[in-house]
């Protein structure tokens, strides 16, 4: 079985405590067998993905738009931007995503966001590390896209914070979870058009005055789970830049990739 957590092999520690931990882990596996995050088939380890689901996953890679990260079918050269960015440039500087959003990824995200599968966060973050290595290396501050307090109360955790923590730890970057505040509760955007999404998130964010020192003149890397039209992250980037950020990049786990590119 393929595992979405480790991208490189690791050697398990030895010793009495390590053996005790492995024994407890084996007992837990007997009680609650690890299952694929995508389809539910039994796998070899918790947070894993079966081979069938792994093969269906579409990783986003070059060639892609230098700004929004939308994948190109042809290589147009370094710095090439898509028609959408040329005609209506977003407020963020660069955006990258690990995988294309599809039915399989949707199941994983539903389990992660709404099914208490917080154990998936480290593995999903590793996917994001591969997609956004340059953004992570150049960032001064990592900040998750915030939830409104009402939605945070319902969900009990912000999935973007869980994705951001391993990224900040791996690259030794400060994680500022409250750099942005979602001041307005917005309806779920799943079935809204692109223009409706922009209106929905307009004015939804404000910067935290207590975090001014972490924002002023800094390159901020915003972390979110999914990028559809980019309206949410663009509104967040716009607010950060208005309040002093030097640059804002975006790194998401998934993004919508339609059959026709945004030309």
Task: Describe the protein in words.
The chain has 263 residues and is of the alpha/beta class. The chain contains 11 helices and 8 strands. The protein has helices at 16-31, 51-56, 83-87, 103-114, 121-131, 133-138, 149-155, 159-171, 194-201, 212-215, 231-242, and strands at 2-3, 48-49, 94-100, 141-144, 180-182, 205-207, 219-227, 247-255. The strands form 3 sheets. Strands 3-8-7-4 form a 4-stranded parallel β-sheet. Strand 7, helix 11 and strand 8 form a beta-alpha-beta unit. Mean pLDDT is 85; it is low at 1-12.
For the sheet with most strands, the description reads: 4 strands, parallel
User: Which fold name fills CATH's third level, the topology of the largest domain?
Assistant: Rossmann fold
Number of helices: 11
Percent range for helical residues? 25-40%
Ranges where pLDDT stays below 50 over 5 or more residues in a row are 1-12
Spatial strand sequence of the major β-sheet: 3-8-7-4
CATH architecture of the largest domain: 3-Layer(aba) Sandwich
Mean pLDDT over all positions: 85
| Overall body shape | globular
Specify Rg, calculated over alpha carbons. Answer: 19 Å
Residue fraction in strands: 5-15%
List the topology elements.
Layout: E1 2-3, H1 16-31, E2 48-49, H2 51-56, H3 83-87, E3 94-100, H4 103-114, H5 121-131, H6 133-138, E4 141-144, H7 149-155, H8 159-171, E5 180-182, H9 194-201, E6 205-207, H10 212-215, E7 219-227, H11 231-242, E8 247-255
Parallel strand pairs: 3-8, 4-7, 7-8
Antiparallel strand pairs: 1-2, 5-6
């Amino acid at each position: 079985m393929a595992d979405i957590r480790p991208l490189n092999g690791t050697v398990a520690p030895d010793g009495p405590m390590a053996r005790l931990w492995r024994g407890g882990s084996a007992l837990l596996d007997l009680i609650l067998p690890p299952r694929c995050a995508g389809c539910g088939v039994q796998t070899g380890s918790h947070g894993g993905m079966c081979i069938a689901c792994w093969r269906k996953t579409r990783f986003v890679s070059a060639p892609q738009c230098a700004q929004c990260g939308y994948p190109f079918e042809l290589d147009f050269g370094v710095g090439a931007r898509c028609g959408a960015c040329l005609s209506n440039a977003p407020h963020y500087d660069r955006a990258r995503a690990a995988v294309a959003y599809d039915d399989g990824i949707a199941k994983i995200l539903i389990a992660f966001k709404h099914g208490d599968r917080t154990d998936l966060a480290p593995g999903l973050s590793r996917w994001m590390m591969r997609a956004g290595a340059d953004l992570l290396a150049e960032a001064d501050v990592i900040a998750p896209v915030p939830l409104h307090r009402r939605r945070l109360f319902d969900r009990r955790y912000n999935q973007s914070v869980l994705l951001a923590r391993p990224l900040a730890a791996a690259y030794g970057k400060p994680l500022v979870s409250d750099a942005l505040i979602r001041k307005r509760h917005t309806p779920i955007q799943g079935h809204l058009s692109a223009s409706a999404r922009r209106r929905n998130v307009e004015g939804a964010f404000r910067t935290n005055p207590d975090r001014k020192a972490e924002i002023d003149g800094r390159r901020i890397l915003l972390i979110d789970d999914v990028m559809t039209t980019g309206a949410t992250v663009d509104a967040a980037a716009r607010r950060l830049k208005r309040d002093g950020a030097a640059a804002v990049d975006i790194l998401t786990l998934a993004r919508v990739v339609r059959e026709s590119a945004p030309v």
